[in-house]
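*** Backbone structure tokens ***
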Amino acid sequence: MIPNEALAGIDEKIREVVRLLNKLPFINTISSCQGHPRRGPIRCYISMETSNEEQFLNFITKVFQKYDRLDLEYELPLISLSKYYGWADDDLTSLGSNFVLELISPSTEEEQMENGRKWLERILRRYLDEKILHSM
């Protein structure tokens, strides 16, 4: 769970997604950016590490399966997940596998990126609600 004072330093439009991801016991977010309008594609990302890669990939698979079944009324940005190795800062030590989740809007339109952030937030809430219900 991420402390409230740490949440205050996270970009406002991605803050709730980061908070929800950190509720999962196998995810620790490292850095994030909500994306900023400019010329060219808008990119939003969340870097995270997991102590249980199998559980993490199972979670991601379930999220994308829900994505495939949604009847969307709006266009979402491209969603990408990449595994990476090592850190830019040698003072940091990894607790496990490291991944970057990106939302990439091919246009400069902020609305598509906002739809992607809201979609991800809604899916995470649904996933967490289901997990809580099944554990009761």
Remarks:
- Residues 5 and 37 are 27 Å apart (CA to CA).
